[in-house]
Amino acid sequence: MALIPRLDIVSLDALELDPSTKGLPYDAPRLTVGDVGSQGWSLLAGDLPLPVAVIRQDVLAANSAWMSAFTAENNLVIAPHGKTTMSPHLFDLQIADGAWAITAATLQQVGVCLRFGVKRVLLANQPIGRPAIDACFSALHTEGGFELYCLADSLDGVAFLAEGARRNPPPEGNPLRILVEMGFIGGRTGVRTRKGAIELARAIAAAPGLELAGFECFEGMLPTPETADGLIDDVAAMALLAMEEGLFATSARIIISAGGSAFFDRVVERFDLVSFPYPVLRVLRSGCYLTHDSIAYAAAFKRIVEETTLQLPEGGLEPALEVWAMVQSRPEGGRTMLTMGKRDVSHDAGLPVPLRWYRPDGSMTAPAELSPGHSVVALNDQHCHMITPIDSPLQAGDMVGFGISHPCTTFDKWSLLMLVDEDYRVTGGLKTFF
Amino acid sequence: MALIPRLDIVSLDALELDPSTKGLPYDAPRLTVGDVGSQGWSLLAGDLPLPVAVIRQDVLAANSAWMSAFTAENNLVIAPHGKTTMSPHLFDLQIADGAWAITAATLQQVGVCLRFGVKRVLLANQPIGRPAIDACFSALHTEGGFELYCLADSLDGVAFLAEGARRNPPPEGNPLRILVEMGFIGGRTGVRTRKGAIELARAIAAAPGLELAGFECFEGMLPTPETADGLIDDVAAMALLAMEEGLFATSARIIISAGGSAFFDRVVERFDLVSFPYPVLRVLRSGCYLTHDSIAYAAAFKRIVEETTLQLPEGGLEPALEVWAMVQSRPEGGRTMLTMGKRDVSHDAGLPVPLRWYRPDGSMTAPAELSPGHSVVALNDQHCHMITPIDSPLQAGDMVGFGISHPCTTFDKWSLLMLVDEDYRVTGGLKTFF
Fold first, then answer.
1. Of A270, A348, B395, B428, which residue is most buried, by most CB within 10 angstroms?
2. Chain-centre distance of CA B175, in angstroms?
3. pTM of the complete model beyond 0.95
4. 3-class DSSP state of B11
5. Measured between CA atoms, how close is A382 to chain B, in angstroms?
6. pLDDT, tens only, B20-64
7. CATH superfamily of B60-298
């Protein structure tokens, strides 16, 4: 079972966009992904139908550079979580800025990475089910080379992977590399005890075709940085224990990994406390840093800046992703309805925040700030309910740009996002694969 | 500005699927939408990677037939809300079962209808912004004929539409047909007063290229059937008032319309109270009846069955849409993690409910029920947290089928859903366009 046996498209830019793609002008010609940036479209000129999701390319580039500096200064590599954006163009940017691998959550996502030329993927889940497991082993045979790391969190799971290796043995020198996933009581996946973890590590080390590559956790489910510390410590302690027990193959690259986008400072601080007898690769897997956001991760980053003992690079993360909608009507003075809904913007970690507005009739030279009295109170499937001060300047036909919370659940609502310059002129199209 | 000037694909079955489409087997050959049903795939044989969204075709057909009978028996026509599914194959089914039009929420959705041959669309929103308005008038010139109804809820909005008609006059005999949208204080769009509504009706009637077609509301935002009654009554009362004032063109088909999927019995009951001096078309716009659901609309339908004074057709609506996921691990006896998350299933009106399970190792002949002690407590982006009885039969690699709440926000997470028979064999692919 080949993971992607049918792929002859390797250039994303050459991929033709479906003409019904949300966000494309209604009168757009047939075009490829690569054509989007050369159409001369401008958000503020009214060329784009709203709602539309835009990414400010200067902010994006600065965020990517900031994380590159942060990881370099702290003896980390990054395998940014690709599930956030599922945009191969953004994977390319991250790799160009030094990403060691791309992280994925599912085999469909691994397939997208493979399709568009990513050479090393960390699948941050235990592959389960014969289609997924067979696809993993198949991917190891990719011409030109492909390294795949995945997780294990149960002996049953390891047994399934070992069966997969028997069915479809990996090529010499390219085993399925496995990190034991550490979890916590009441948490998500991941083995709950150190005893369970060492048993898993032994089972992996003993299985032909599998290689113990290290230990990892996802601490982002925990409520506070303090509670995350213990889980991160488990990862380092287990790696040490497995070294002492000689469970790593001599050829193995030994990895310790953690890191959502909320507590990545703590990952460094805790890992720094441990010294290892063998070289260890410290892999951070944050995904949301790239576009950042205006609410949840904005607050998380503020906490990092205020609390961390680390020296942070100049500048900092800024929100790059905005969704723009149009005022449909103001049926009551204090209530404005806009053309944006649950299908267009994340709503699972805070409702979008109005940032600025623009009237596309030639009367304004640039978007203007909106006063704090404007706030979103509800989203329906295709509508946004915004409370507005009675003297708000907004009227039907005005455009409003919103900051979002939780990039993952905004990206997945768009198969095409627009990359824009500082004047909101479209410079490219970011195709996503959800 | 043509709405869809670039469409040469008119056959959905001939459309090639992107190889990265979620839900497709990893080793699927390149295929078109029309090929999906002839691959011999079976959910229970383990051919599909999980998660996958499936629609039981027998239940779907029965729901469609039930609504067809309900509307026919109650002097209604249905313009089912296409935004729910955005699946042109399902539009075809609805039209074959007598749908008078397809309802849409956005111009992108109108474009999808037009692309795949729908001849009459009710856009249940005020078009706003030059791209959207120009696209409306452009669509009226579609070769072979295309009737477009839309809403208006402010004088500014009508002025924009009138300008659009001046820029791009509709062809003789095919004006932009407009329903005045009635709203309520604290609600969504829609004019708040009868005085405001009659002013709008006059403005529409006076504008060349626009035609007053009637009045409508969306009562589904109201908390109870009793509160919905007043809004439905407004619609009928306004139509009567506009008739008395002579605002309808003699050629106009006069429409009164309402109807989400929760209170559609009340629409009939309230409209039945009014008699009109001219023929009136009563248009229901429910969308969720087609797949129905296992939670929110299941409860709403139960209320209808218990309370309505109407004679209902035999049978009733049943849930047709399920999302299947795989047990990834049971890291604690009472907690099971599955391969399904916010990106795969609706979570805005209740978390999914586990219905049945299956072990794809040949030991079971059919899915078995799950005891009530199994319940979903949380979803992350790509994970499902399920509480399980300690003696639950579930283990890693087992499949679990979930019922969903709110079809609209499950459909939009899949660009391809699988149509299945009673044994979960794939009989077709439903491509969606969100």
1. A270
2. 26
3. yes
4. coil
5. 7
6. 999 999 999 999 999 999 999 999 999 999 999 999 999 999 999
7. Alanine racemase (3.20.20.10)
For residue B29, the chain A residues in CB contact (below 8 A) are 5-6
Q: For residue B222, give both structure tokens.
A: 């109201």
- Cβ contacts of residue B131 below 8 Å, gap of 6+? A25, A26, A27, A46, A47, A48, A49, B1, B107
Which of B156, B328, B351, B426 has the most A C-beta neighbours within 10 Å, making it the best mutation to test the interface with A? B328
What values do phi and psi take at A264, rounded to 5? -70, -20
Locus of tokens 């499902």: B384
Q: Given B25, B112, B189, which is nearest A20 (Cβ)?
A: B112
Q: Which two tokens stand for residue A34?
A: 């690569």
Give the ipTM of the model, two decimals please: 0.96
Burial class (CB in 10 A: 0-12, 13-18, 19+), B143: exposed
Do residues B214 and B152 lie in contact, with contact meaning Cβ atoms separated by under 8 Å?
Answer: no
Among B33, B91, B128, the residue to mutate for chain A (most A Cβ within 10 A): B128
Q: What is the DSSP string of B329-398?
A: EEEETTEEEES--TTTS--SSS--EEEEEE-TTTT-SS-EE--TT-EEEEE-SS-EEEE--TT----TT-
Q: In chain B, whose CA is at the least distance from the CA of A161?
A: B397
Distance from CA of B329 to the nearest CA of A (A): 7
CA B229/CA B210 separation, integer angstroms: 29
User: Shortest CB distance from A107 goes to which of B26, B108, B128?
Assistant: B26
- Please state, in angstroms and rounded to a whole number, the distance separating the CA atoms of residues B239 and B241: 5
The structural domains of chain B, with segments of one domain joined by +, span: 21-26+33-56+317-431, 60-298
A307 Cβ contact partners less than 8 Å away, ≥ 6 residues apart? A225, A265
Write out chain A's pLDDT in tens, 434 residues.
555 544 555 689 999 999 999 999 999 999 999 999 999 999 999 999 999 999 999 999 999 999 999 999 999 999 999 999 999 999 999 999 999 999 999 999 999 999 999 999 999 999 999 999 999 999 999 999 999 999 999 999 999 999 999 999 999 999 999 999 999 999 999 999 999 999 999 999 999 999 999 999 999 999 999 999 999 999 999 999 999 999 999 888 999 999 888 999 999 999 999 999 999 999 999 999 999 999 999 999 999 999 999 999 999 999 999 999 999 999 998 999 999 999 999 999 999 999 999 999 999 999 999 999 999 999 999 999 999 999 999 999 999 999 999 999 999 999 999 999 999 999 999 999 99
Which residue of chain A comes nearest to B411, CA vs CA?
A343
User: Distance between the two ends of chain B, CA-based, in angstroms?
Assistant: 21
Cβ-based contacts of A190 with chain B (< 8 Å): 331
- CB–CB contact A27 B5 (8 Å): yes
CATH of domain A21-26+33-56+317-431: 2.40.37.20
